[in-house]
Amino acid sequence: MTTPILQLQNLKKIFTRNGQSEFLAVDGVSFDISAGECVGLIGESGSGKSTVANMIARLLDPTEGRILLDGEDVTDVKARQIFRTVQMIFQSPQESFDPRRTLGDGIGESLLNVGRSRSQVRAEVERLLEAVGLPPDFARRYPHEVSGGQCQRAAIARAVAIHPKLLICDEATSALDVTVQAEIVDLLSRLMRERGMACLFICHDIALAQNFCDRLLVMYRGKIVEEGPPDEIVQSPKQEYTKLLIDSVL
Amino acid sequence: MPTSEPTIREAVIRGSSGKTRLYVFGAMAALLIVVAIFAESLCPCDPYLQNLDAALQQPSAAHIFGTDRYGRDMLSRVVAGSRVSIFSTFLLVAIITTLGTAIGVFCGWARGRADHLLMRVSDLCLAFPGLVFALAVAGVLGGGLHNAILALAAVSWPKYARIARSQTLAVRETTYLKAARLAGCSTSRLILKHILPNIAGPILVTAMLDVGTMMMELAGLSFLGLGAKPPTPEWGSMMSETRGLLQTVPWAVFAPGTAIFAAVMVFNLLGDAVRDWMDPKMRVKS
Predict the structure, then answer these.
(1) In angstroms, how far apart are the furthest CA atoms of chain A?
(2) Residue ranges matching CATH 3.40.50.300 in chain A
(3) Does the structure show a pLDDT above 90 at A54?
(4) From the list A95, A100, A114, which residue is nearest B184 (CB)?
(5) Which fold has domain A1-85+165-250?
(6) Bond preceding residue B231 cis, omega within 30 of 0
């Protein structure tokens, strides 16, 4: 049996403010993602989905529990030690690019950081832009000069530049309008097929997650309350909360 | 009732394009700097040459600003003084901007105990009347222009540290910084390539606005005898030398006084123009 690309074991996150009021954002979350698998994490806002994503990307330290990446314990390392394996796409594309640097700088940054030469990076950025359906001159544009959909394409190019094994999409399509959303989802699924990436698809749109994912996890108040194949969850939810979530869409 | 006509304020803002002001005051500041650079060749007379026969002369064709009590040409001394006054101000502002920004970024990035300690020190400096503290520092270190610069630097960095710290705290929580971390950037790269460029705007504007203030404070210390030493021509000390003669030979005080006034004004207005120009709301249409 192959080791899953990602294993979460009883992950907990408690936010404290001045050591006083505590907020249990993530309460004992455990799940695995196998190589090439696409797992959807759904739930209302405030249920702890993004906190889980930030902990996996090692941008946030868990209070308890372990994170295993490719079988290796990465609970105590920083983002820059695992960025070759895990990449993330954020909700608001424009805010995820440094306003004072071009999209090309942003896309090529991880490649520069692994020691590629500038000319190699420039050529690779052009290839990546083409792969996500943007003209090569977008490398010289600034984030405020492109639309949200174009910017999210650039963000996808940035995330896949380093060939990660796991891509976390944290509400990657929520800030976009419906037609652009469909294009971005198409692009994501094509890239995942081509490159064999696993994906943690965080989203609050059940219909979208049902179409896109191999497996769904339903999160509520920091806990995973239901897990299973998308069609099964949508057609015969076992938990009250899942029913509520589905009813609210229909 | 809503009306499509612009209000007076909007009309004024639209009319006085920020760029024009920037160019006008930029040109005036550039002129001052050019004068300061070529001060020696621009002086009509030797600013150090004493001629007691021609002491305390009224402004005339030969001496446009008159002469002081040693018969030195005031115009030459004002022109020569521009180099000392302007360049030591620039040096001072460069020191406090760099030092304050470095401390502020460090505090905002590291947080924790070092941050607390440095911020309490800066509170102390901010709570103290600046010039009084500078006087004390200059008093301990002794007179001289270098010590005056050090004294003012010692009390003026906290403003920059505060700005840099709060900006760093804001930028480190942004999504693009998360993305940069996930691109594998080292701490030094995060700070140099992502934090500094994004916090530079307000710091540079503060520095521009501070040029005028610092010029006055340096002149003030010199006036009190803790800055430039005679016979070095420096506007503050020139005013101090001739202040007893204000009622009989006012031009000897007016010449350096006007120079300070004009230079401070130009740099302040340039700072204002730069701030307006950097304000994103002013650039929306471009």
Answers:
(1) 56
(2) 1-85+165-250
(3) yes
(4) A114
(5) Rossmann fold (3.40.50)
(6) yes
Residues 6 or more apart from B209 whose CB is under 8 A from it? B268, B271, B272, B275
CATH code linked to domain B18-38+65-285: 1.10.3720.10
Q: Which residues of B touch A158 (CB under 8 A)?
A: 179, 183
- Domain borders along chain B are 18-38+65-285
CA A154 from chain center: how many Å? 15
Q: Identify whether the C-beta of residue A65 lies closer than 8 Å to the C-beta of residue A8.
A: yes
Q: What is the mean pLDDT of residues A95-113?
A: 94
Structure tokens at B143: 């007179």
Structure-model confidence comparison of residues B124 and B276, the more confident one = B124
The confidence score (pLDDT) of residue B13 equals: 58
pLDDT at A187: 93
Rounded to whole angstroms, the Cα distance separating A246 from B174 reads: 33
Q: What's the average model confidence in pLDDT over A28-43?
A: 93
Angle between helical axes of B74-110 and B145-172 (0-180°, round to 10): 40
Taking the C-alpha atoms of residue A97 and residue A95, their distance in angstroms, rounded to an integer, is 5
Separation in Å, CA of A233 to nearest CA in chain B: 32
Q: Is the model's pLDDT at B2 over the cut of 60? A: no
